[in-house]
Every structure is written in C-alpha cells, then in structure tokens.
C-alpha cells in the first residue's frame, strides 16, 4: 500500500495527499505542456500517479489534429465517468479536466457531451490551473479558453524548482508556439493561436537548468520551430540558427535537435548551422504533405514540389550525412490519381529515413473541410497503404545502410535484459547496447551489428557478457 500522508493544507480531500494522473495525446508540445502542468500541480500539493484509479485529479491533455484523435478523448471520458461514479460511492471525489487542443477547439461543448468533466482548460491558460482547480473545488464547472495576455511560460515552474525531479537524459524545450501559416487542412492556428517566440534569454536559462539536472540532449519545440525569432543582448535579430549556436555552448549538452519545421522558414543561417554545429543532429523533420503542385497550392503550403526538392539539395550540400523525415497527407480534397503519383515520385526522389502519413481528415472550421471534391475513404485507404509501403521500404533500407558503421549513441535507460542498455542513434532510432558499453547519460561510440524491426543492435549487445551473466 502506498503511504498516505496527512496534509492539512488540502482539507477538501479528507487530509490525504492528492494525486494527479495526466494522459497526453498528440504532439511533443503536449508532452512538454503535460510536464509543466505536473510541475505546477506539484507546487499545489499534487504528486503524479500512473494509476488512474488512485487519482484525485485526472487530466487529459488532448489533440484535435484528426477526427480520430479527438474521438479518442470522448471514449476515454466515457470510461472515466464510470470510475468517477465508483469513487463517489466510496465517498471520494475524482475531478476531471480536459486540457490541450480539444479543450481549445470545443470549449463549453465538452461539458455538454461529457458530464464527468469539471474543467476545460486551453493550452494558453495553464498558468491559471491552480486557480481554476480552486474554483472547481468550490463546486463550479470551469471553462478557461481565452488567449491570455500574459505569457504562460512566465508562470509555469520549470525544472529548477525543488520538488521537480530530473526526467532523464533527453528533454523537450518549447521555444515557439502557435502558427500563422493557415494550411487549409489544419486546426493548429485555431487551437494554438498566433506564432509567439519565447525570448532568447529565457530559452538559454531553461536549457542551462536542464543541463544542470543531467539532461544531455535537448529538442527545441515549436509548431513552426524554424520561424523562431529573437534578439541578442545588443538588440540584434537572431534566428533559430543563431539560437542553436548559443545553446551549443552550454556545458553538459551533447546533442541538439529541433522540430517541426516548415520548408518556407529554412533560412541560410539555419542550413549553415547544420554544416557548422556537430552537436546539431543530422536528422531533420521537414514535412511537405504532398508532391503535387496543385494539391500544395490548395493546401496553402506556399511552395511547390520543385522548391522543396531544391531546399533538400541545399541542406544535403551543407551536411552530407543528414537524414530526413516528413509528414504526408493523402486524399486531400481534389487529389487525383495523378496528384498522388506525384507524391509517390517525390518520396522516391527524396529517400526518407522515416515519415508519417495520414488520411486527410476534414476538421470543422478549416477551409479544407468546406472544399468540393472530397476523396472517398476507400481511395484514401488504398493510397495510404501504397505510400506507407514505400516509406517502410525506405526506412528499412536506411536502417540496413547503418549496419557495419560506427555511430555515437546516447545511453538513455536499462534494456529489457540485465546485460543490455538502450540508447538513441543520431537519427532517433533506439539502439540496444551491451551493459558494458557505459552508463545512462553516457555518449558512446558503437558499431552497429544488426537491425531489429524498430531498433538497431550494437556489436556485443546480444550475448550476456561473462561478467554480468
Ligand atoms: N507544423 C507542422 C505540422 C503540425 S501537425 C507542419 O507544418 O508541418 C502534424 C501533421 O499532422 C501535419 O504535418 C500533417 O501531416 C498532419 N495533419 C494535420 N492536419 C491534418 C488533417 N486535417 N488530416 C490529416 N492529417 C493532418
Ligand atoms: Fe498546421 Fe500548416 Fe501551421 Fe503546420 S504550418 S501547424 S500544418 S497550419
Ligand atoms: Fe494535436 Fe494540438 Fe499538437 S492539435 S498535434 S496536440 S498542437
């Protein structure tokens, strides 16, 4: 049994220490936000739990990007409703909050559809979470979805605060949020608001703290991370390339990454950073969505396929060993067979190390949803299958090309067996290593001996060594 300490400052839960269960859907930005919410709640006396049945507060940090993602939340809320009723029978309360992009997009509607919900809180208002929970405790149903004038990042506690434990050797750091691009399929500009860049000094400070708490790899996050812009101490403009140069000087940080980028914002300075900074991993997520100029135009991507290919050439010229990943949508309204073949051709031409692909999902309120010429589900499914087969082949070929090469691997955690550890390749693949290679947090150089379905195996990782067996 877990110890339940008396805590007089939390009288509303009968003196027991409060526990929060947070479930995260969607992108890395939500992962980052969930950690910040957990930190903010720690200050308020909540400790995290992985067991939903134990929770006094359940928070779903939701995603609205495709219909499926949003629907998952409602089925989860159905299950939670039963749990909440069970708890009420035992005389204990369970409060339920919906955060994230579904909260922002649907607001009040969530309360109507899911009566178990006590609190709806949009991504720009997390710093008001403690206050909102106090209102919930007083019996109110709370909806907080205004875009706040104050900056949520200024209020959310970060890793330096006492109770906050280090979360491993890799960490996300949000540097930019929101989007002004308005691709016609996408809800992000509506759920996350306009593009906002965090100031350079704040980012450097947070990165230093992460490094001090043992983090060795930092991934800068933004919906359009390469649209980040700031100023140096002298007031001169700095872009993401310049920011990466600053972060590269922080002691303890061994690897930098950034995601997600828009092709339109890949400037010369950023491309040069790939040439000049070894610490910047040679792996770039650069979504193109489609290989058809007609579809790209209808999506409002504001570049054509040839421009994307030229950009890839320039990036490869700067950093020969760079590997690419991307996002694709099949079945956007008006996409013909020929348009889809253009996408297949582009994928063949680029050669991706990995890529995500999705069936177009019409989202309420976006221009795409109102377009004519929607593609049938069956056609979408057929196209997705062909595209995914091609991407899978490329991914397998890329992994196979690494066998026999040596690479730096950052050790992240123990493996499944006592004689193994798991690390990350520069290309984000999990690498299984021998426990004799080093310790968690070490960067080690290993030779890749074989590929497994979703990971790589380093030389000597398969056999337990004499010492540990
Ligand atoms: N800012 C990033 C993408 C964020 S959303 C960019 O511009 O590339 C992540 C991915 O989800 C997108 O790249 C797109 O491939 C996919 N996506 C977004 N809206 C979608 C929709 N309505 N239907 C299907 N896939 C979608
Ligand atoms: Fe969505 Fe386009 Fe903005 Fe990416 S750039 S978040 S796809 S609107
Ligand atoms: Fe989803 Fe919102 Fe991220 S819609 S992909 S959680 S920005």
Automatic annotation (TrEMBL):
Cofactor mode of binding and number, as noted: Binds 2 [4Fe-4S] clusters. One cluster is coordinated with 3 cysteines and an exchangeable S-adenosyl-L-methionine.
Known catalytic reactions: N(6)-dimethylallyladenosine(37) in tRNA + (sulfur carrier)-SH + AH2 + 2 S-adenosyl-L-methionine = 2-methylsulfanyl-N(6)-dimethylallyladenosine(37) in tRNA + (sulfur carrier)-H + 5'-deoxyadenosine + L-methionine + A + S-adenosyl-L-homocysteine + 2 H(+)
Binding site for [4Fe-4S] cluster 1: 27, 63, 101
Matches recorded under InterPro entries: Elp3/MiaA/NifB-like_rSAM (IPR006638), Methylthiotransferase (IPR005839), Methylthiotransferase_CS (IPR020612), Methylthiotransferase_N (IPR013848), Methylthiotransferase_N_sf (IPR038135), MiaB_methiolase (IPR006463), rSAM (IPR007197), rSAM_horseshoe (IPR023404)
Cofactor(s) this protein requires: [4Fe-4S] cluster
Gene Ontology molecular function terms on file: 4 iron, 4 sulfur cluster binding; metal ion binding; tRNA-2-methylthio-N(6)-dimethylallyladenosine(37) synthase activity
GO CC terms in record: cytosol
Superkingdom: Bacteria
Record keyword tRNA processing present: yes
Binding site for [4Fe-4S] cluster 2: 179, 183, 186
Domain TRAM: 400-462
Summary of subunit composition and partner proteins: Monomer.
Functional summary from the UniProt entry: Catalyzes the methylthiolation of N6-(dimethylallyl)adenosine (i(6)A), leading to the formation of 2-methylthio-N6-(dimethylallyl)adenosine (ms(2)i(6)A) at position 37 in tRNAs that read codons beginning with uridine.
Protein name (database record): tRNA-2-methylthio-N(6)-dimethylallyladenosine synthase
